[in-house]
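Incident log entry.

Two folding requests arrived from the same account within the same minute. Monitoring flagged them as a possible duplicate submission, but the sequences differ. Recording both here for audit purposes.

Request one:
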Amino acid sequence: MADRQMIGTRTGELSSRRCFGPTGAVLAPLLGLVLALSGCAGQPVQMGSTVKTVPAEQALVMPPAAGPGIVTVVERRFDNAIDQDIHLFTSAMTPGQNMLKVQMFGTAAPFKMASNALTSSPLTSASVGSEMRKALPGIAMARSQYYVQNAYGPFGYAFGRGAGSDLCIYGWQQVRSPTGTISPFANYGSIQIRLRVCEAGASEQKLLAIMYHYTILGAVDAGGWNPYGEPNGASPTLGGIGAPSYPRPASTEPMVPVLPQRQSIMTTRAPMTTSAISAPRQPAAATPVAPAPVSETTVVVPTASPPSNLVVPSPSASTAASTATARVTVPSPSCTTQKEGTDIVCR
């Protein structure tokens, strides 16, 4: 029995040396440890999962229908937010890219072991000034002192002159619920929006219309995410007595615009054309021909001193090859009917 055990031990040692070489006795335990820890390894790296280009249809904010159009959208995913640079059409001479920048806070982390949270800084005069200097370097921007707001609340803006005839706007807005209504379970989350646009020959009203009429399309799929706050209640006068309601403001403007009357164009036929030229003496045997048909031509008015004779052109001949025309002589009112030979003589 002892011999058999010794033979079995020597056989195992020989097999270990054949598989792992001379150091097989040392590597065998390490190989087992590596195999045991392989179950803790992560998934393969997904390229482009945190920063990628998405189609224009996936933009979180859509500019107004009048433009500017979307060129491309670059999206970055963080542990707590989604950041999008929505590049807009640019035709200005001022260096830089027109852009709508959107940061939507309140999302979940795309990876379990991620640690790249995005900081949501409050809007201050200093922070806005720093942003404008980076977006529009070298351009003196004048901030508006007026209070304005769009469908999502108040916003601020500034204008400046760029290269050539370019007019530039920088707008900023923060959408979030009132401070007293925010909690970890309701009305949390916020949206940061920045606008940078330069356009040649544009007016302030045209560029400001972008801030008034853009639309927020994205949202976070969570029950408590609500940066817009509680909806406004109905008017207290609705359904009450003494508060009449009309379909339109009281004015003289009709509800349906009046169509303009159609103007018909009538074509009238001009009278017979006459030529104010002197007629040569014609033989008396000439056959009278009917006057030419009415044509749509300009009437030639005779001068103050009419000639002695008016010549009426005859219609074209029966065949296209014949171009000869006959003329009839009409006596002048100052002539007599006395004949000498074959000619008519005017006294």
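Request two (distinct sequence, not a duplicate):
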Amino acid sequence: MKIVIIGAGGRLGAALMSEYREKHDVIGFNRAQLDLSNFDGVRDELRSTNFAVLVNAAALTNVDLCETERDRASLINGEAPGVLAKVCRDKGAKMIHFSTDYVFDGDKRAPYIEEDEANPISVYGESKLAGEKNVLAAEGPHLVVRASWVFGPDRPSFIDGIIKRAKEDEEVDAIADKFSTPTYTLDIAKMLPHFFSGNVEGGILHFANAGECNWQQYAQWALDCCHEAGLPLKARTVGALKLKDMSNWVARRPVYSVLSAAKYTELTGIPPRTWRDAVADYITRFYSKK
């Protein structure tokens, strides 16, 4: 199968490139190779490229930066996905577009399902919701996959920052009153082929590792796994911070944005593994060798 991956230099895009390179005919575009703000350039490049599936893993993901660069966020996260979807429609190809738990306001206290109303509270969330709508407005079996707290080996994320700090300092802390679910890029890469076929229905799909946690619990489990693996860390426990302590943040974040993967499990018969298992696997695979 011929697959195009947009955002091949990012955390998720690089994982997809690595996973699919030997199994499919894959072409990857990073930010330097394909400027999503240049719609004519995007159309010209993709119209001359053969593919059956296009995966868009590119986005402006700096939540605070989006607040001050609203137009850029709207262009990259909102309008560009619609341009990609229309190119795919014209080529008879399927588009899989990645979105975020930040399309929700966080007022719910049970996992969000696909039918829940989106109500973003940040420019980032607004721009990503606009991108979803533009993708689904284009005719075709296009799929929007919402994921949360994505981590993986190809680009540092929260978990890597915590481990780095724990190597250098005896005290580390993380927010204890914000809840979601970590999602491992390798698990995303393994689940996605279920939806490559144009005969598989599109729409919105939530995918995250099973369970829920706050950032403090996430960080503590990461340190526990590192100690179990014999990694030399100075810190053993993670202190608690509150959202109100984050005075340097510009954008509002949803307090609770856990995504239910029940629909994914029903469609595939394969429930995602727990976030704890995924984090343990990540640390064993990529840190115990260092």
